[in-house]
Amino acid sequence: MATRVPGISAPRRRVVPVWAVALVVVAALLVGAGAFLSVRALTGVDVPDAPRGLRLDERSGRLVASWEPVSGASGYQLVRDDGLVVYRGDETEAVDVAVPAGEHTYRVVALRGDASSPPSEPKSVRTGNGWGVYAPLVAQFPELLPQAPDAVAAWNDARCVRRYSGGRDEVGPSETGNGRVRTVFVVRCTAGAVDRPFGVFWFASKDALNAEYSRSSATSRPVRWRHGTGLIDENGRGVFKITDDPARELAMIVVLRTPAQDVLRTVDSMPI
């Protein structure tokens, strides 16, 4: 039996009103909902839908991909094989100009700010032989040059092959060469027949192009053509700068004189 201490009343049990319990429950639900929405925003749960309708069109030396637009997307990424991003922008069509020959798988991802969608269903395609990493250079001349090594160009059915060899003053021999390669890429072509040869050379810098041009000027006379300046030597070999297009300022065209073609007339007729 409990002993009651004189002067001290026994504690009364406090009854919590039902409405107070309900208020606490509602507040907890609101806090929980707010926390859920905050986590959703922070974790990027609200992402765009995965793009649909990915289509692949294999063309000579390049791959054209297209897909359906995604509502609310601010941009897209086209990914080749194991994560190589070949396009990032807001269009729903992209061209992979540097795709190598072989079997490739593509996916497209929609972007919204910093959030990205799940990838689209993958699509695979087999592509033919192309110019590889130099395809963007060849693509600067879509009519003059074939866009794949085994294709023909729109201009005079020109066929081209890669031929790269540094000049003697670039790589050697040691008494004349400096060991530094100026020429990045060269294609040599024949237009219509083997007696109409020409080539396009790309250089590592404007200084490299000017150095080659200066070397040729020692034995050549200056001429004007419809896209810039040029030189023609005593053997009829012409080298021509492209001066009115900054995107192609590192390219130089070389045309050889033959009985079938006049150098200046030929270069003026080229679709540059």
Strand order of the largest sheet: 9-10-11-15-14-13-12
Secondary structure category: alpha+beta
Order of helices and strands: HEEEEEEEEHEHEEHEEEEH
Unreliable spans are 1-11, 28-44
| Proportion in helices | 10-25%
Number of strands: 15
For this structure, the quaternary state is single chain
Work out the helix count: 5
Radius of gyration: 34 Å
DSSP strand content:
25-35%
Mean pLDDT: 83
CA(first)-CA(last) distance: 111 Å
- How many independent structural domains? 2
Name the overall outline. elongated
For the report, how would you describe the main beta sheet?
7 strands, antiparallel
Structure in words:
This protein has 272 residues and is α+β, with helices and mostly antiparallel strands. The chain folds into two domains: 55-128, Immunoglobulin-like (Sandwich); 133-269, no CATH class. The chain contains five helices and 15 strands. The strands form three sheets. A seven-stranded antiparallel β-sheet has the order 9-10-11-15-14-13-12, sandwiched between helices. Strands 3, 4, 6, 7 and 8 form a five-stranded antiparallel β-sheet that branches. The longest helix has 26 residues, at 18-43. 23% of the residues are buried.
